[in-house]
């Protein structure tokens, strides 16, 4: 029987629960309101001729680069951040290289790294999900070729600060540091402007979260001038489709739309965290568009009961250090009001907040 490479045979299939997602979708950290009307307007102008051609990425890369304050050659548009991670792994990893991931975190770092045959080393966050700088630094070996850090992190919402990240980049003589800023807009700190000072610092951004374009699959990989040509060698020239390319300038151009959504999310994040406190449910400080909440032993019942009320949230109990935890995406003001009502009812109905502690 035909078998795959050993590293692939050893992988588990990653199957996010995408079926039956009707309702208020607070389960995937997507934008819950939708993209800029300017994007929809541009979509309506797309012609058959536009779709008949292979997509040309470079002009839009130049627009994105300008938005980030970088040179076009430092920016690669990708089929979501997922593809950016995949490309970095393909470019830099082979057995017996080592990859450090800070757990709990986004699954795709480990999947793409393990698929190359590299050895994945998990560094667990501190007890309160603080970034484990000392542990990361002491886990670096001559074989460390990639360190992936999501800041803000998913599913915790915790951040690593800029000085910590740059310290890691400096301590990594023959490895790449990926700082995944998928939730940048909800936080505001970035290391994008430090890329020029390092040979090994890569940053990813996405249009899937604040911009409301998860279905179009568009992400950005930014990195050092000397490294990006290497990454481009393994990238398909057509991985970002023509429709996504056509609308990205309109998405970037409507900063009012994004800012308005982000400010509702930040406000909602504070209100929900406050309500959880008064219900005696612990949630961790988050700089992203979600909160990780310790529900306790009734986490499954909670997720089901919320679904029955038409609100989808994500059980993260299986993530390392997240026993009994559920991740709740924060949406716009109206959606937050609905979430707050449901949380109050649920706490009462399931008698939550009595046994759950941090
Ligand atoms: C930290 C992080 N990075 C990347 C992604 C995926 O981004 P994209 O939709 O651009 O592939 C996610 C999605 O949940 C995420 O949480």
Structure description:
The protein is 37% helix and 16% strand. Helix 2 packs antiparallel against helix 10 (242-253), helix 5 runs parallel beside helix 6 (108-115) and helix 11 packs parallel to helix 13 (333-349). By secondary structure, it is of the alpha/beta class. The relative contact order is 0.16. It has helices at residues 6-9, 37-44, 48-52, 58-68, 80-92, 108-115, 133-139, 162-170, 228-233, 242-253, 255-278, 299-308, 333-349, and strands at 24-25, 75-78, 98-103, 119-124, 144-150, 176-180, 201-206, 219-222, 282-283, 290-294, 311-312, 314-315, 325-329. The mean pLDDT is 96. Pyridoxal-5'-phosphate is lined by residues 29, 80-82, 106, 150, 154, 180, 182, 206, 208, 214, 219.
List key phrases describing it.
358 residues, alpha/beta, seven-stranded mixed β-sheet, four-stranded antiparallel β-sheet, 13 strands, 37% helix, globular, binds pyridoxal-5'-phosphate
List the helices and strands and how they pair.
Blueprint (H helix, E strand, L loop, with lengths): L5 H4 L14 E2 L11 H8 L3 H5 L5 H11 L6 E4 L1 H13 L5 E6 L4 H8 L3 E6 L8 H7 L4 E7 L11 H9 L5 E5 L20 E6 L12 E4 L5 H6 L8 H12 L1 H24 L3 E2 L6 E5 L4 H10 L2 E2 L1 E2 L9 E5 L3 H17 L9
Parallel strand pairs: 1-11, 3-4, 3-5, 5-6, 6-7
Antiparallel strand pairs: 2-8, 7-8, 9-10, 10-13, 12-13
Helix pairs in contact: 2-10, 4-10, 5-6, 11-13
The chain binds pyridoxal-5'-phosphate.
Pyridoxal-5'-phosphate binds next to helix 5.
């Amino acid at each position: 029987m035909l078998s795959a490479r050993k590293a692939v045979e050893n992988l588990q299939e990653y199957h996010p629960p995408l079926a039956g997602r009707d309702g208020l979708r607070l389960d995937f950290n997507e934008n819950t309101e939708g993209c800029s009307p300017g994007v929809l307007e541009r979509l309506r102008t797309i012609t058959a001729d536009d779709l008949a051609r292979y997509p040309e990425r470079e002009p839009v890369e130049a627009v994105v680069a300008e938005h980030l304050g970088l040179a076009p050659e430092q920016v690669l548009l990708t089929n979501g951040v997922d593809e950016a991670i995949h490309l970095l792994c393909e470019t830099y990893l082979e057995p017996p290289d080592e990859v450090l991931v800070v757990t709990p975190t986004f699954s795709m770092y480990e999947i793409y790294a393990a698929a190359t045959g590299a050895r994945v080393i998990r560094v667990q966050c501190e007890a309160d999900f603080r970034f484990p700088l000392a542990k990361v630094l002491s886990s670096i070996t001559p074989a460390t070729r990639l360190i992936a850090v999501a800041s803000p992190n998913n599913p915790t919402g915790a951040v690593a600060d800029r000085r910590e990240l740059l310290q890691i980049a400096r301590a990594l003589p023959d490895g790449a540091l990926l700082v995944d800023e998928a939730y940048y807009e909800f936080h505001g700190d970035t290391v994008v402007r430090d890329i020029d000072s390092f040979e090994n610092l890569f940053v990813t951004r996405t249009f899937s979260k604040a911009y409301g374009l998860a279905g179009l699959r568009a992400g950005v990989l930014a990195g050092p001038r000397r490294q990006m040509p290497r990454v481009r060698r393994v990238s398909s020239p057509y991985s970002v489709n023509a429709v996504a390319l056509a609308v990205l300038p309109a998405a970037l151009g409507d900063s009012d739309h994004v800012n308005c959504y982000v400010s509702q999310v930040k406000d909602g994040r504070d209100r929900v965290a406050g309500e959880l406190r008064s219900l005696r449910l612990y949630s961790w400080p988050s700089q992203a568009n979600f909160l990780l909440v310790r529900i306790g032993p009734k986490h499954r019942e909670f997720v089901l009961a919320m679904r029955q009320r038409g609100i989808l949230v994500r059980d993260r109990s299986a993530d390392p250090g997240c026993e009994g935890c559920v991740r709740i995406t924060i949406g716009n003001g109206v959606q937050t009001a609905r979430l707050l009502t449901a949380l109050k009812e649920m706490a009462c109905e399931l008698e939550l907040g009595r046994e759950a502690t941090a």
